[in-house]
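Provenance

Sequences were taken from public entries as deposited. Structures were produced by running a predictor on each sequence independently, with no templates supplied. The record for Hydrogenase maturation factor HypA from Aquella oligotrophica is shown for reference.
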Amino acid sequence: MHEFSLCEGIIKQVLKQKTILPEDIVSINIAIGELAGVDIDSLQFWFPVVAAKFQLADVKLKIDIIPARVICKSCNTEFHLQKLFDPCPVCSAYANYDFLSGRELLVKSVSAK
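Predicted structure for Hydrogenase maturation factor HypA:
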């Protein structure tokens, strides 16, 4: 159900933009980090339901996945983190890293007629 409220937030954010009329919106393009804690299937399921609630039933949701990139605080190695708390591939330190990408959820663009 978390994804339902995310869909509401995405649509409300888009509707705040006064440069485009709601009836002209064709698609909303977002980017989600692969470790952002968002269930993509659930988000795609709920989006049409929420869009219809805002009279945007024909609007499509396009999703790009941002890979999780981190830098190890122990050895300064930058690597792709596939699962939260995986060890560094160089020094084997666990969960001792800073995220560079992969935890965000961004509205990238809105396509209109």
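The chain is about 25% helix and 30% strand.
The chain has a mean pLDDT of 95.
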